[in-house]
Design a protein that fits this description.
Elements: H1 45-70, H2 84-92, E1 99-101, H3 107-112, H4 116-123, H5 128-131, H6 148-161, E2 168-173, H7 180-192, E3 196-202, E4 205-206, E5 209-210, H8 223-226, E6 230-235, H9 239-254, E7 271-276, H10 299-302, H11 306-316, H12 322-345, H13 363-379
Helix pairs in contact: 1-2, 1-11, 1-12, 2-9, 4-12, 6-7
Bound molecules: thiamine diphosphate.
Length: 388
Amino acid sequence: MDENGAADAGSPGPAADPLADEDVFRVLDADGRPLPDATIPDLSDERFRAIYRDLVVTRRFDERAVSLQRQGRIGTYAPCAGQEGSAVGSTHALADRDLISYQYREHGAVVVRDLLTEYLPYWMGHESGTEAIAGGNVFPLNIGIAAHLPHAVGAAWAFDYRDDDRVVAVHFGDGATSEGDFHEAMNFAGVFDTPTLFCCHNNGWAISIPEARQTASDTFAAKATAYGFDGVRVDGMDPLASYAVTLEAAEQAREGGSADEPAGDGATRPALIEFVEYRFGAHTTADDPTAYRDADDVDPWRVLDPVDRMEGFLRETGRIDDEGVASIREEADAIVADAIDFAESIAPDPADMFDDAYADLPPEVRRQRDELLAAVDEHGAESFRREE
Ligand SMILES: Cc1ncc(C[n+]2csc(CCOP(=O)(O)OP(=O)(O)O)c2C)c(N)n1
C-alpha cells in the first residue's frame, strides 16, 4: 500500500473467482449458455443479434481508440473492454426517449444510440462531439467524478414533474460512490421518487484503488437501503442479465411517483444497479495497471468476456452461425472505420477553445483569444493543426 492508500502490485483486488458470488444475478453461464431456471428476456432474434452487434462495435471501437491514441491521433482515452455487457445490455432495455448520463467509460451506451460517429470527435478534442449526442438523449460525458449525478436526478425529477414518461439512467464507477454528490443525489432521488436508475459500474478499481479500499459496505448495491430504495447486484459482463435487471428497474421507475407524492408510501422508487464487472485494460491510456495489479489478476475475469458470452448464447440457441458472426464483425469494422474517417475529416478552428464556457468572455480571456486570432492571421490556421 502506498501513502495514498493505493494497493501495491499483487495486493488483493476484486474476487479471484467472479462466479463464486451467489447474490449476483445472471442469465448466462461463462460460455453463454442459459443457466438452469434462468428466464431469457423476451426479445426477437433480430434484437438479440443487435445486442451482439453493438457489443462487437463497442469492442472494435475500443481497440481502435487505444491504437489511435498510441499513434498520437487522439489525446487520451478511457478503455472499456470487459464492461461492454452492462452499457450495451442496459441501454437496450431503455426507450429511445430515456435519458442517459454517463461517466466516461460507458461507450457502449453511445453505440446503442447509434451516435459513435457524432461522439468520437470529442476524444479528438472537438466540442461538437459532446453537442451532437444530446440529440440522442445522451448528456455529455463527465470527467468530474459523480458531479453528473445531481444533474441526472434533477432531469429525472423534471420528467416526473411534467408527467413526461421518461427515466434517466446515470452511469458511474464504484469510486464515485465515495463522493458527496453520490449521496446527495441518492437521497434526493429517494425522498422525491425521481425516476432515476443509478447504474454503478463496479469494475473492481478506481484507478489504483481496489474496491475493498473504496467502501466498508458489503456491496455497493447495499447503499440504496440507506436511501429507502432497492439495490440489486447483477453480472455486468452478462449482457442479458444487465438487460433484464435494467428493464425491471426502468418499468418500476416509469410507473409513476410524483414530486408531491409523500415519500415512503411504497410508490415507485428509483433503483441502484451494481454491475459487477472488471476493467480488462488500463484506467486510461495514461495509466499502467501493472503498477497496482498483477497482469494475471485479469485472467479469471476474461473467462466472462461479454462479447464472447453473447456470441456463445447466439450460437448455442441457433441464432447465429459462422457466417453471421463474420458479417457482424465486418459491419462493426466498417462502422468504426467510418466514424474515424469522419472525425479525422474535421478541420478545427483553433479559436473554438474559447467558445461554450462564457456567454461574455472576461477581459483576460478575450485578450488571449485576440492574441491567438492575430497569430492565426499571421501564420495561417494550418500552423495550429496537428501534423499528419
Ligand atoms: C471530483 C474528481 N476527483 C478526482 C478525479 C480524478 N479521477 C479520475 S478517474 C478517477 C477514478 C474513478 O473511479 P470510478 O468512479 O470507479 O470509475 P472507473 O474509472 O473505474 O470507471 C479519479 C479519482 C476526478 N476526475 N474528479
